[in-house]
Amino acid sequence: MLDPIGQLSPLQQRLLRELDLCDLPAPEAEPESYAVRDLDADEVREALPALLWAGLVEQRDGDRGTLRLTVTGAATLRTAEYDELAGRLSAVVSFADTVGRGTAPRSAGHALRRLAEGSWNLERAEAHVAAGDGA
Question: With contact defined as beta carbons under 8 Å apart, do 96 and 55 qualify?
């Protein structure tokens, strides 16, 4: 997904998801707010200027103020999530073609589940069924 800062990094997308749930204090003000979310406050601090510049996030009350997702940020997040899900669905469809060529049902079902969850990519799922792995 392209936006004013290019494609969102995994950290940027994760931070936008967290801000979609609630406003957060600046990382300098309360680094523990990020630690409990399994985010590194220093990494967030480095990613923040690009998000602020692009208008995806706003910061109220100066450098130590509250971070908030903007309407543009919410739209960018939804587009990134849509792109991710569309890619996953495309992989599932491609995998269905592989399964249609014949494979063990247990192996195919396991691989399809992993692919749909997003924990495997298409290549790994196809390799799994090609190897005939039953696990």
Answer: no
Q: Cβ(64)–Cβ(78) under 8 Å? A: no
What residue has token string 């204090």? 25
Q: The tokens of 82 are what? A: 């849509």
- Taking the whole predicted model, whether its pTM rises above 0.90 is answered as no
Contact at 8 Å (CB) between 115 and 125? yes
The CA angle 102-107-113, to the nearest 5 degrees, is 110
39 Cβ neighbours under 8 A, 6+ residues apart: 11, 14, 15, 18
> Picking from 2-11, 33-42, 45-54, 64-73, which range would have the lowest pLDDT averaged per residue?
2-11
β-pair type (24-25, 6-7): unpaired
Cα-based angle 56, 27, 118 (whole degrees, multiple of 5): 60
pLDDT in tens, 58-76: 998 876 789 999 999 999 9
